[in-house]
Design a protein that fits this description.
Elements lengths: L10 H12 L4 H11 L8 H13 L3 E5 L5 E5 L1 H21 L3 H6 L11 H19 L6 H27 L7
Antiparallel strand pairs: 1-2
Helix pairs in contact: 1-4, 2-3
């Protein structure tokens, strides 16, 4: 798969830096990891990964070593670690600017009037998304218990929403809420 329209420019660079921060990896391993973490929805091609790895190396952000089978593994240099921190800060600033868009994501990109039945749900979903974004911004302060509690709340909410969705699917087409 090639770069999809939904992948923001610069995101691949961020992911590569992030993966290399944790351990040395080859281009193929990076592609595989991106595929795994995106549920196989995005698997960048070699025409994206290898020029990026070459650029990072030319800038002094990475260095490579060759292992037994001739495969190159890349690792971050100190300069690369600093560059990654700059990218993280840019990402945080970007997310802060996008927080006001949360209601649009919840409401969807639709035309015509909003179904009145969904207005209260939309506001609740908006508040939940805003809270989750706030939690994400404070993730360094979360304890293991906090994370487990959030996951449990989300799982329980999803189960309940799935039950409502199933009930709706079982209704006849012209039955209304």
């Amino acid at each position: 798969m090639e770069r999809t329209a939904g992948v923001p420019r610069g995101f691949l660079r961020f992911l590569v830096l992030k993966f290399l921060l944790s351990k040395p990896m080859s281009g193929a391993e990076i592609v595989e990891e991106i595929g795994r973490q995106t549920g196989r929805k995005w698997k960048p091609g070699s025409g994206s990964i290898y020029p990026l790895l070459a650029w990072l190396q030319n800038k002094g952000y990475t260095e490579s070593s060759t292992i037994e089978n001739g495969m190159k593994r890349y690792s971050l240099t100190d300069k690369g670690k600093e560059f990654f921190e700059e990218q993280v800060e840019l990402g945080h600033n970007f997310l802060e600017k996008l927080e006001w868009l949360a209601p649009m994501f919840v409401g969807g990109f639709q035309h015509g009037p909003i179904n009145e039945n969904m207005l209260c749900c939309r506001e609740s979903a908006k508040r939940a998304l805003e809270t989750f974004m706030e939690l994400h911004a404070k993730q360094d302060n979360l304890t293991k218990q906090d994370v487990e509690d959030v996951a449990k709340i989300l799982d329980t909410s999803n189960e309940q929403l799935r039950k409502v969705l199933q009930r709706i699917k079982e209704k006849k087409p012209n039955q209304t809420i």
